[in-house]
Protein 1
Amino acid sequence: MKLQTRYTDISELLAIKDMPSTAAKPQLLLFNDKLADNFSIKHDSEFLAKLLSGSTIDNAVAPVALGYSGHQFGHFSPRLGDGRAHLLGAITDKDGTLWDLQLKGAGATVFSRGGDGRCAIGPAVREYIMSEALHALGIATTRCLAVVTTGETVYRNPPRPGAVVTRLAKSHIRVGSFQYLATQGDIEGLEKLVDYAICCHFPEINSTDEKRYIDFLTAVQDKQIELIVSWMRVGFIHGVMNTDNTLISGETIDYGPCAMMNNFDFDTVFSSIDHQGRYAFGNQPTIANWNCARLAESLLLLFKDEKQALTDLSAVINSFSTRFNDAFNFMWQKKLGLESLEEDDHILVSELLTLMKQHKLDYTNTFNLLTESLQSPVTIPANIKEWYKKWFLRTSTQSYKTMRAVNPAVIPRNHNIEMIIGEYENSGKSASLEAFLKVISNPYIYKAENTHWYEPPKEGDANYQTFCGT
Ligand code: AMP
Ligand code: MG
């Protein structure tokens, strides 16, 4: 595996050399063979366990911890950084795309701020499953190459086996990375970081044009809009959309407190620390807009004419809601299989959402039922029967195909994820993971024999809570 150094040329503040700790007894627990194949990485358990726990570091490799700031729940922390992650370097896939290879949970770094830099088995398994599930749902995400257990105990409440996650991402440049260089007054580094991010993620932007910072903000914002719409299409609640968890590439990152919505309700929140519902399901667009505004503030430092820059950057930020609504309306159009969006269709959408909320209908299963109803006889719930008649008149021969492509039959339900995590925590292995991964790898295919995985939790989810994955 050939690892290249990355980010060190941009600013000495951005990537700090830092060695992972050695694990007592590293063992490969999960390995993503299909993903590994893209990088021609062989399934050599002993070698990979040592490498991907951070226990064996080749002399040619220089691991770093990345520096970044972050607005966490709206409050600014000027110096966060990778407190439990080591970037070993970047690897190239078969298409020539560069990916960061990062170990999460391989010990404390210069940014740990008193934390242990460790990761417990539960959050590691959650990240593996959820990132695979989102990828299969067609949502941009960081990927998980492996989970290695360390043979050590991580002191949480209760103590748990330790694990290291190997995360692959097209880059780890976050909104918080720009905030960090801006806060540190490293304007040269900030300029270089924008140019590098443009080069990696938005090569269509003319990098010599004066307008490039405005174009960059527009492109980042558009990626965020695309991401949030795709989350909302499947009922994903990220749960911790801080600026340090917002990647410029538009990939989903940080699966700590994430969850899937069962019954439809824009106010759904599962994170135990999100008391105000800042990161509620329906608040995700507002927060993405807010995070883009924080990026704009950092970029402001790069302009000579501050007044003009403020006007131009604000125009981009102010365009968020129109651009988002266009994409969001298009999403509903597809979810309902409508060929075009007519004048009254927004009423059709809002009536359905109101009924779903009122009657506590499952988001995924309702859209799946509408989809399948165009193909085979199904029972439509009594409380949406009248609405169904109106909607049915708006469907066409193309509707089934359109709807099947955007409405998943299966999502990674919270209670199933918890059940699998519990198996790993209790016995270090799972009897269910393989079958579950197989089903969620093909989420847009409805199969009667898989209905066991389609069901929402019998007891409901009023008491379900997620926690930041420390
Ligand atoms: P997160 O909630 O994962 O986005 O983390 C927020 C910040 O806390 C980041 O700077 C992390 O590196 C840091 N952090 C989280 N968990 C730990 C840990 N166990 N040890 C050290 N730093 C941590
Ligand atoms: Mg994070």
Note: The chain has a mean pLDDT of 97.
Protein 2
Amino acid sequence: MTWDDHLADAADADAPEGAHPAGPPAERLVGAGADSEDTAVEAALRPRSLAEFVGQPKVREQLDLVLRAARQRGTTADHVLLSGAPGLGKTTLSMIIAAEMGAPLRITSGPAIQHAGDLAAILSSLQEGEVLFLDEIHRMSRPAEEMLYMAMEDFRVDVVVGKGPGATAIPLELPPFTLVGATTRAGLLPPPLRDRFGFTAHMEFYDPAELERVVNRSARLLEVETDAAGAAEIAGRSRGTPRIANRLLRRVRDFAQVKADGVVTRDIAVRALAVYEVDERGLDRLDRSVLEALLKLFGGGPVGLSTLAVAVGEERETVEEVAEPFLVREGLLARTPRGRVATAAAWAHLGLTPPEQSAQPGLFGG
Ligand code: ADP
């Protein structure tokens, strides 16, 4: 690898997480996106009220006030923007908002709205007070976004009829509605859109105790017998994400049923998740192979992204978008201008000893 290659690599070493539309492959056991099985079973597991919604205490408290106040005034609630990683409960919250307001809910997403006309069709068919959930709102087309500004502010849209010089804009009154927008990062939204939300909530990753409550709650609904240590073991491997916690619970349940008496204990969870190669910190095979290559082949780095990708036999995008965000979040890997660097925690996690400090200047404060 030449120095120029290193520079090219280093130039994008700091590329923001989630900057590319492609998410993690849905089939990945620890992927945060919904796969087809999730979609089928999640409906049964979704909390139906704010009181049932686990964790996110600030968001719950603030949202509770927004909804109560609107109910007392007899108006629709302010538009709500939810930001946060996939699987943290944004869709669930939109359903709760509709339920708590006693309003119908319509669900759509940014990528489904490519033309302003698509949005006009949805908006003009809303009922009074309806909650419109717009997932991945940052991926809407620009003309649709501009139509949305007016709809959010004045409950009005201009529908353009005809083309060229003969085109006319026909104003259309809309019934009052509540828009619930969801995005992986609020920073991706243009400020004029962001400013039109009356209430913005940032959803954090869940801590292990909260995830344990999610696992216990889901186990109850799925009628799976789980002991406290079993639930804790699953929670600790769920990457701060309820969707992953629910999915791991289902896989452990299968194992408990086939290989034991159906009860999810710590031992069963450990053995089941060893089969699925999800380790005690929630890393899967891909995450571990990236870390292992970084440590064993490159002495902990710094190494360029392309080189690292070749070493693990994956596409560069897979390493960057699928494996790295979690490794960075866990403090196992750092993206530096000089390339990827393993942290002391990465050595410890894989049970390896870092090389002597003198051999790796710059790595451990050298
Ligand atoms: P998002 O829309 O952010 O991708 P979802 O709302 O679809 O996430 O949530 C994914 C799954 O995780 C749902 O099945 C839901 O049951 C579960 N879930 C999410 N948040 C919570 C929570 N706070 N308490 C309990 N279950 C939750």
Note: The domain at 285-349 is CATH 1.10.10.10 (Arc Repressor Mutant, subunit A).
